[in-house]
Structure formats: C-alpha cells, structure tokens
Amino acid sequence: MAGELDVGYVAQLARMHLTADETELFQKQLGDVLHYAEKLNEVNVEGVEPAAHGLPIFNVFREDKAKDWFTPAQALSNAPRQANNLFIVTKVVE
Amino acid sequence: MTKRELPALSIVEVQDMLRRREVSPVEVLESLEERINTVDDKIGAYLTRDLTAAVTEAKKTDVALPLGGIPIALKDLINVEGQQCTCGSKILGGYRAPYTANAIEKLRAHGAIPFGRMNMDEFAMGSSTENSSAQLTHNPWDLSRVPGGSSGGSAAAVAADIAFGALGTDTGGSIRQPAALSGVVGFKPSYGRVSRFGLVAFASSLDQIGPLTKTVHDSALLMNAIAGHDSRDSTSLDAPVPDYAKNLGRDLKDIRIRLPKEYMIDGVDSAVKTAVTAAVKQLESLGAEIVEVSLPHTEYAVSVYYILATAEASANLARFDGVRYGHRADNITNLFDHYARTREEGFGAEVKRRIILGTYVLSSGYYDAYYLRAQKVRELIRRDFAHAFEKVDALASPTAPTPAFKLGEKTADPLQMYLADIFTIAANLAGICGISLPCGFADSESGKKLPIGLQLLGKALDEARIFQIAHAYEQSTDWHKARPKTIAEGMKRAGKAGEL
Predict the structure, then answer these.
(1) Containing structural domain, residue B461
(2) Which backbone phi and psi does B239 adopt, to 5 degrees?
(3) Which among B326, B415, B432 has the least Cβ separation from residue A32?
(4) Which of B167, B177, B248, B341 supports an S-S bond with B173, CB 3.0-4.6 Å?
C-alpha cells in the first residue's frame, strides 16, 4: 500500500504546488512513514467500532437565535484584498 | 530581595508579594521585561511582546483575584484581539486576531495579563520547535539542543525564568514533551476540559490548551482559571470544575499507580529509565500502591496518531487559501494557482508533508485501509486505558524516550522526529489527562545537565487527582528547584538552593 502514494497527484488534490525536489523528498519520507504505519495491519479490528473521539461526544444543540458577531469591518480586517465590504478573489467563472 | 530576582519566583510566590504590596503588577512586568532583554537573545523563546499594552492592563488588574497581576506568555496560536497569531507560519504573517480565545477571557477574568507570543513549530506540527518559520528556540539547559516542541517557546521561557507561566497546546504531547526536555511542569487537560474557541485548529479531536509552569501548584492555579464549559466549542464538556489546588498536600494512601511495561522499551535512554524507575519507587515510599497493568496496543499509537492527526490537519488547514486572511500569492491568473501557489509559499516543509499524508489517507481507495482502520485501533487504545483505570489511579512513565536532542539531529528524518512523541500520543487518542514534571537529569557528553520528565496519566476529568500525585512527588524531591546553569548567572530561587 505504501508504494501506491503518488505525492505529485496528492499535492494537486490538496491544492498545493510542490517543487520537484520537495516531491521527491516527500515521496521517500512519507513512504517510510506509511511503511511504519503498516504495523496497523497486524491488529485484529473485527467488530470494533471506529472512534472519532477519545471521549463520547454528542451533538450539541442551541436555540436558533441570532447573536452579535463580527462587523463587516472586523471580518475584513485581515483580507488580502477587499472592496465595497467584500473579499476580492481570483476570477472563479470565465 | 532585589528586583532582579523577581522573575525567578513561582506564580504562588509572586502572588504573595503582590498581595502584601511588596511589589506592584507594573513592577512585576518591568522586571520580567528586563530579564527577557538580557536572556532571550540566547534562548529565542519570544516572537513578540507588547509591554505598553500589558502595563495598561496591569494598572487595572486587581491583585486580590486568583491570578491578579501575573503575566502569562502564550503560544502563538491562541487568538487575542489585536495581537499577532502566526502559528509559527509565514501564511499568517501580518494577521491580527479580530477576537479573543475563551481561555484568555478566563485568564483575564482571573486577573492574569497575557504577555508575549511564544515560538512554536509551525501549526504545532513538530517535537523540537525547529519547524517555526520565524526562529530557532534553544534549550536553556544546553543551548545546542532543542527545547522540545511544539510548545518549545513556552517551555524554554518558563525554564529560563523569562515567563512565570505560559499556555501551550498538546495534540500529541506538545505540552508534556517540551516540558520534559526543558525541565518544567506541563499539563495536558482531558479532551473537552478547556475550550478550544479561539485556538487555531490542528487536529480537532486531539487538541487541548494547557499550562506550562515552574511548579505543580502553579499549574493547578492556571487550570483553575482556564477550565470549564464554553458554549462556543461544541466539544467543550459541561462538567463541574473542582478546585485543582484543593488536593495538593494530601498523602498518597489509597492511590494506586502503575508503570506499564510497554513504556519501558528498548530505545529508552538508560538515564531516563533509571530516573523514572526511581520516581516510581519514590511514589511508593510516599504511600502509593504500585500494581500491574498492561496497555497492549501502545505500540500502535504513533501510527494511529500520524494517520488521524494528519487527516484532521489536512481538512483544518484547507482554510488557509489566501481569500479571507493571511498570505496570498502575487500575479495569479487562475483559481487553482491562487490556492496552490499561496499554500506553496505560505507553508513550511513539515506542514506540507502532513497535508499530503492527511489528504492521502482520506482519499478515495485509501480511506478504509488507513483512516478507518486507524480509528478502530484508536478505539482499542481507548479501551486499554479504560481497563487500566479500573485498576489504577495513574499511570507513570517517561514523558519522552530521551533527554533533549541536538538542534538539527532529527530534522532530516521525520519518522525519527515522530517517535519522540511515542509516550505522549496515546493520551490524546484516548482523551485522558496527563502531566510531565521534572524527575532527574542526564549528563550530556559535554557535561551539561539535561532534564528528564516523569509523565503521570489520569483518567478523563480526574485532573485533581493527577495534581495531587504530582505535587506529592514534586514536594518530596528537589528537581523543580534546579535552574539551568547557562543562563542562571547568579540568580537564585528565593530562599532556595539555586542550581544543582
């Protein structure tokens, strides 16, 4: 399984450019990590429920009531680009 | 006592002086600032601090409050309105927090003053603080070594007496491991004990905020401040918070402790084995009953962790896309490049590695083999602890397999770096609480004293008992009184022996 990792392809899925050097290095390093993780195949997990948390966590509900939160100015205070109370982004639709 | 010695005091000792009006909150801050200025160029613990803002807060604080007038340093991933919060990453360069974390609101309500943003591994990913995009942090006991990580700046600052106490975060050991390597007390609360509202998420099912301090008592006081329910974190536990200082000083009769055999494996440094074995004997001499227990799935914890934590991180870090905050790449013509180049430029190597790994284990065709299987083994690890805590009150172990390693020693081999967390990771997977406290020293080849940490793990929400056991051990030894020689320069803890 560890041999099936294609770092270049996964980097595309993760929307992250890597240099050729990084791709080669991560291929080796993450191959080692995945090889180490193959030890999990030794464990008999038949009938075991997967745990998403260490402790039992239940859905939490609250009243559907509006609360004060950021003003537009606060929400935009770290925007790389903004205008007219909006985030300006790279063109999405041609 | 001269003003210069003030930063060497514990929180409890400074509180005493503040309440007797022997010193003012502003003088406490100024003496701390003076010491930071003389010491931190060697350590590199602080990323930034704002003395003027802190002094303004100090003038308004009420010293009668539980932490009135005490400056507390913050790992640079906890939001405080108006302050930077870089997470040790270039991608958050220039970011100013527009809101304040629940833990900090609570600290302030207890009179504490947030002062200083501490260095860390980028997005808390690392065990040495070498993954910070900003600077290296040096271990105060041996400047050629790492302070541990990822809360390395917080740990080193407390060890070097340039912070009275600090907050860090622990996802797989990031409070306990640097506490061990730097020779301070580090506490990881049970999952859900401290609100994560305002904490930048790494792995949401594992992250917890917790204190790093000089003493167990100080740790309990900080936990008294930050623990408790918060409706803005849906995983925050709605359970009563006891006074964590109330059990301190109680004896250890009726306490049962076990050193699990799975934690004394090959690869544990001999000085670490000796110190931890002696610490368990010491606990026995204090009245604790030592009983047998086994945690058979221990050896799988690192694998489970690096699948689940990276999977969660790959999802959490998708928010760093250059749209609403943080770095955005220049001269971009299409949306894919907007994301891909922004993230290429903003993230460091370890963060990229973990995003790749996490994306892979969640991807179609590999989800069942990696992610789902790891979640099932997580359940088995959780059951190991549940069974163990039917028989014992605490598990004792080394916090880390070795004392502090050299800067640069493990950076080329991520797997070796991951194995530095081998004894701390399982507690996060199981959601339980734990502490690391000083239990001895190893000698480096150059004759430096390197601290060793004793880890005590307790069941979920049993923090008060872990503080009780840790305090009894600490008070029966002198380890916590020792100060690093490299920077001690004649400083002494008031009324105590000074360095070893």
Answers:
(1) 3-299+375-488
(2) -125, 145
(3) B415
(4) B177
Query: Is there a contact between B155 and B168 (Cβ–Cβ < 8 Å)?
Result: yes
* Alpha-carbon distances of B297 from A51, B190, B261, B367, rounded to whole Å: 15, 20, 12, 21
Q: Is residue B356 part of a domain?
A: no
Nearest residue in chain A measured CA to CA from B203:
A53
Amino acid at A42: E
Number of domains in chain B: 1
A22 inside domain? yes
pLDDT tens sequence across B374-389? 999 999 999 999 999 9
Chain B CB contacts of A16 below 8 Å: 339-340, 343-344, 347, 352, 355-356
> Looking at residue B73, what DSSP letter applies?
E
Range of the domain at A28: 2-42
Report chain B's mean pLDDT, rounded to a whole number.
94
Å between B371 CA and nearest CA of chain A:
9
pLDDT score of B488 more than 80:
no
Beta bridge partners of B212: B166, B186
A22 vs B contacts (CB less than 8 Å): 349, 352
Q: Are B356 and A10 within 8 A, CB to CB?
A: yes
Q: Does residue A26 fall inside a structural domain?
A: yes
Residue of A nearest to B327 (CA): A80
Element (H, E) at B48: strand B46-48
d(CA B80, CA B103): 10
Rounded CA separation B38/B45 (Å): 13
pLDDT for the residue numbered B264? 81
